[in-house]
Amino acid sequence: MNQDLFDDPAHWEIAPGVTLLRGFALAAEAALLDAVAAVTASAPLRHMFTPGGLKMAVALTNCGPLGWVSDAAGYRYQASDPVSGQPWPALPAAFAQLATQAAAAAGFGNFEPDACLVNRYQAGTRLSLHQDRNERDFSQPIVSVSLGLPAVFLLGGLQRSDKTARLPLSHGDVLVWGGPSRLRFHGVLPLSAGTHPLLGDQRINLTLRRAG
Ligand code: MD6
Ligand code: FE
Fold first, then answer.
1. Which one of the ligands is nearest to 170 CA?
2. Which among 160, 29, 141, 152 is positioned nearest to 95, based on CA atoms?
3. 0.90 exceeded by the pTM?
4. Is 5 within a domain?
5. CA of 182 to the centre of ligand 2 (A)
6. Residue 35 CB contacts under 8 Å (≥ 6 apart), including other chains
7. 207 CA distance to ligand 1 centroid (A)?
8. 98 lines ligand 1 (CB under 6 A)
9. Could you tell me which residue, 1 or 96, shows the higher pLDDT?
């Protein structure tokens, strides 16, 4: 755990290639929340099914040229929303700009996302331990933005059985995830009930990716 990167307590390299930028999204908060509302109005949050037939606890949608989907056929990225048959909503400029800036602050230059997965958690919602491996190029990082209620993120290792560390994430925190840690297992503990002044009873997580 390297806490003295740039001597900035808000810029913390937790593991090689994993940097937590505390509060990095706060400056763009209003634009981000407006964009989340616009995206979810045009491509509503929904519960997808795992390839094994289980309904996911997290509700999700996407924006950008590609969106992540899960169904009986598997996990993949595709250009259209399976509910509407229409292209996913465009990637909001506020999302793309924040992602590029956060990636650069963590040492990943020229990050240009083409996909943003929007996850919604409510009290009790958890995300089980997984790897993100549906993207084409694992040299590209993922930028993860936490909004609304706080959550506890589980940071594992490269094997599912590796021990996990608990990382609390709050409104405005940005996690940049890449390099030698790109395929680490990770998850989110069940969300505690609460009320966030701007987002109410939920946590929204944006993960911006270069998928194609
Ligand atoms: C979440 N995040 O924070 C779930 N994946 O709600 C993820 O699954 C995730 O934060 C890849 C990279 C960063 C992440
Ligand atoms: Fe993930």
1. 1
2. 29
3. yes
4. no
5. 10
6. 92, 94, 95
7. 6
8. no
9. 96
